[in-house]
Structures are given as C-alpha cells and as structure tokens.
Amino acid sequence: MSSTCRLLVPNQPPRSKAAIFLPFGYLEFGTLTFSVVRFPLLVNMGKGLLFVIKSIHREILILEFDPSADVVFSVLPSRYVKSGNLSTARELFNSMTDRTAVSWTILIGGYSHNNQFKEAFKLFVEMRRVGSDPDSVTYATLLSGCNDPDMSNEVIQIHADVVKFGCNSDIIVCNSLVDSYCKISQIDLACQLFGEMPERDSVTFNALITGYAKEGLNEEAIKLFMEMQHLGFKPSDFTFAAALCAGIRLDDIALGQLIHSFVVKCNFVGNVFVGNSLVDMYAKCGRFKEARKIFANLRCRSTVPWTAMISGYVQTGQFEEGLKLFNEMHRADVSADQSTFASILKASANLASLSLGKQLHSFVIRSGFMTNVFSGSALLDMYAKCGSVKEAIQIFQEMPERNIVSWNALISAYAQNGDGEATLRSFEEMIRSGFQPNSVSFLSVVSACSHSGLVEEGLRYFNSMTQKYKLTPKKEHYASMIDMFCRKGHFDDAEKLIAEMPFEPEEIIWSSVLNSCRIHKNQELAKKAADHLFKMEMLRDAAPYVGMSNIYAVAGQWDSVSKVKKAMRDRGVKKVPGCSWVEVKNSVYIFNANDKLHPQMEQIGRIIETLMIQMEKEEGYKPDTSCALHDEGEEIKIESLQYHNSTISKMGSALEEAEIAETRAMGSALVGITDYWWQCV
User: What domain count does the chain have?
Assistant: First the structure.
C-alpha cells in the first residue's frame, strides 16, 4: 500500500489532523498506511531534529503502524541514537519483535560513540547470546568507543570473537583492533596483529604510528613512518603530528625537517593540525625563524600554536620573549589555556620576578583556571622559585584537588628552599594520601637530602626507588646522590656509585666532585675529576678550570696552575663575571662582583665591614680565601669576598627594605663559601 505525505508552506494550513508542524511548514499524512519504502525517507527529513523525530514516532503510534515492518524500527532508533537520546532508542529497540544485525549495530554504535563502552560491550555480549551474528561493521563500531586501558580484557575477547567468525582477514576490523590496542596501551598486541594482517592500508599505518608516539616509542614511530612513505601509503594529519612529536623527543631537527618535506609533498601545508605540530616542533628545537614563518602563515591561529611558540621560548631559556609573545596573544584576543599559563608562570619563576608572578596569578584567577590542578601546580612552583614558600604552601592548601604533579611541586618547593625535613615530611604525606611517587618525586627528595646533609636518609630513599617502587634512576638521581656523598666528604661512596652507574658520568657529576674536593682538600680525587672534565671537548664552563687552579694554588703547585690557565686560553674559555639582582618594590637592581659604580656603594661598604667585624667577634669567622683569585694578595682576596656580587645585592636591598627577609635575591653564579655566612646574618 502507498501513503500520501506532502509538505505545505506556512500560509497553507493542514487539511487533516495527521500533520506535524515543522520550522519550514507542515508535514501532512494521508489516511493510508505508510509504505516501508517511503518511511526511511520521511524520517531522514527530521535528521538532527529530535522534536521532529518524536512527532513522527507519535504519529506512527497514533496511526497504528504495523510493528512487524522492521525497517521502521531500524530507522527510528538510529535517529534517536544520532540525536543523543539513547534511553528512548533502547526502549524502542527492546520493543522490536525481530532484531537484525543492523538494529543491534545501531544501538551498540550509540553507546560507543557516547563514551559508554561498557554498555556497548554488554549489548554485544547479549547479541551473541541470543544468536545474532555480528558483521565487520558491528565489530568496527564497537571497537571505535574503546580508549580505556582498563578495558583490555574486553578488547581481547572481541579479538577472539573476530577470529572465531573468520573476520580476521577483514581490513576494516583489523584496523579497528590495531587502533584499539594502541589506545589501551597494548602496543605489543597491536604490533603482533599488524604483522599478521594479510593486507594493510594507510589507516593501519596511521594507527600504529600514532600508538608508538603515544607510548614514547619514538624511534619505532619514525621507522614505521619512513616505511609507510617507501610503500606509497598516504599519511593523515594525525600521522604527521605523531611523527613530528617523535622527532621532537629525539631532539633531531634534521629529522623534523625531513618530515616537513613530506608534509609539503603530501599537500598538508594548509592543514591547521599539521601546521600547529610544525610550529611546536621548530619552537621546541629552538628554530624560531622557521617556527615564526609557519605561525604567520597559519589560516587559524588558535590557542595551540600560540602556546607552542610561548612554550618553545620558555624551554630554550628565552623567558622575556615568551612573555612578550603572551602579551601579543592577549592583544590578539586569543584565550589562554592551562598549558599557556604553565609556560608563562615558568618564565616568571625563572626570572624570579615575584611582582610579575602575582600579576599572572590574578590573570589566572580572572580566566577561571584556579580550580585547574595544573595551573595551581604551576603557581605553586612559581612562588617557590621566587622564594615565597609561604604563598606556595597556601596555593597547595587551597587547591580543590591534587595529583602527583601538585604534590611534586610542593616537595620541590621545600627542597629548593633548603628545608630538607619538610621535604621528607611532604613526601611521606603524599604516600599516605595514596599517591605513588615517581622519578620527579625522588629527585627532589634526594636533592634535599644532599643539601641538608642527610646522607642516611638519602641513601634509604634512593634504594627504595629501585627496590620498592621499581623505578629506574636517571642521570639526575645519580648526580644528586654523588653530590650528597661528596658534600659530606664520603668520597669512597661517591667513587663506588660512579663506578656502578649504567652510563658514563657527565660534566655535572665531575664538577660536583671537583667542587667538594676543593672544600675537603682532596687533591688526588680533584685531579681525577679535573682530568675527566678537561677531556670533554664541549666543556666551556670556566668553573672547573678555576676550581682546579685554586686547588693547585693552595698546594703551591704553580706549574700546574700555569698549565690550567694555558688550557683555558687554548680552548677559549673565559670566566664570566658573576652578577646578582634583587627585586625591591617592583624595581630590579643588578650588582656585579666588586661593583664600585652603585650610587649607594659607600653605604653598602660600611654595612659589609660592620658585619665582618661582628661575625669575627661573635662567631670567630675567618674568610676562606681559597675560592678567591689565587694570584692576588691576602687583603685583596678578603676584599673580593666581601664584595661578592650576591653580598652587595643583599646589602643594597637592605637599604631599600626595612626587613631584608622580604627581599629575594637571584644570582647568575654559584654562591661562594663566604656567602653562607651572610645568609646566617
């Protein structure tokens, strides 16, 4: 039988009661039963309009449409599913007398696409229980919603069912399985399936390359990307993004440029997603000329490329440039996100500009990101690096939620400001709160133990890192442990740990050994450390040369002093004069060593001399001139220590502030031995 159905414009009123009002007119039904051929066309007219779908559904019920016509009840659930009304779709599905694979697949897809994979899987199990056979579309639809690592067993069961019903040669199903295994971090199973597939296409390669990059298997991602190019498969925008991400992690600018050439070859230059990835790659590699060029040519400059540029400047130490670009971003009326704030707060922290940090803090509040755990952690870190531990702790206490990042920020705050006991207390409190420490947590703890002289505690935590928490120590952990042993004069333990390290000691380790040997007057080990340092072709830091020169000078070995000086000249190494700066009342004051040009130098000098006399009288303090220039007289050496740049900066700030405790000083050079006494005053 046929039905009559016509569309009327608003100025033509309906001639029967069986009519539906639409925004563009009336949909009028005749008195005859709908034909199963025309009905799907009618329902599709209401695609995306939930009230239209419900109206059509109501008319079907009023007109007592024959429910045995399964095509109607296959189409209506799909419309409800696509409009997001899963509960009504499920009710309609349950009322169906004869469910086909199509109707099962439609509802399974509804749950999958709405991030309800568990419900989708339950429905799939029920489908199999009642004897309805899935097809390749069913499997692909079901797997599309799986991205939770906790659902590994379910994906493996689906894979087994695929094999059982002979769909394991279907490329669509296999691609879906590879993609799902990658999303749930089962990369080994994804690789195994990839190797077993009788045929592959671009989707297969794209899925596995993205999976490799996600898991940090950067070399594997690049290798597969190159194989894909060799075989002639076309990458997607996600593939290029994953390959560029892997290139960044490998710190290989040549590789990044090669991938860029493939981007041009495959005509993805205008793709916004790929463009953002290219900006990020060049910025993180410090190639800002190329990054700026791509950034300028982007059709749409959203938050992502702006943040990539800012992050690149900050990561390469160009903090002022990062902040300038943030101002440009603000003027361009582009909203910042949590990653943007994390970068600019890091810039503020490294500039030790508390006033700027407070301005950014207010900006974070106005932008509504204070409840974000990552923004809160970045603020905590900023205040800690500016020496404002009290404010850092307050930020932590006011955070609505905490994660391992925020706990690490608190632990690091105490460690950076020399409070070893508070560092350990916070670490233990974090564990009691149910958080598992990671390598960052242990680095702060070991560093705090090193600077606080807590050797036994440091060794205990270092051992628990490997034995209890199964974490592999990195170079930084070994460097902190060796520094801890050397600071306390435990050179045998330091040498033993150096010998046991799974990699060759780098500059930072031998420099730490050399500095401690000077303090503890261990000339033999100092020479060994210096020999290792001088063999490093890339060594351009003057500190090891000066340190070894001073050790030889104290021992009266002037020939050795001359050799060290010659080595410095031959390599073009020069000692850069240190400087310190303080921020007082939103103004920054810079001081150089032996600075005689400061307008308040006379007053600063009187304060220093008064303190020296007081320290000698009350504490029996005598300046350690071993760290001063060895070829000067004793009086000149003492004067150079008195007028150390950090000392001058503190005395200068004391003239500006009533309480020196409120002044935050930063220095470009390591604080000398003498400076420890000034910190005690």
Answer: 7
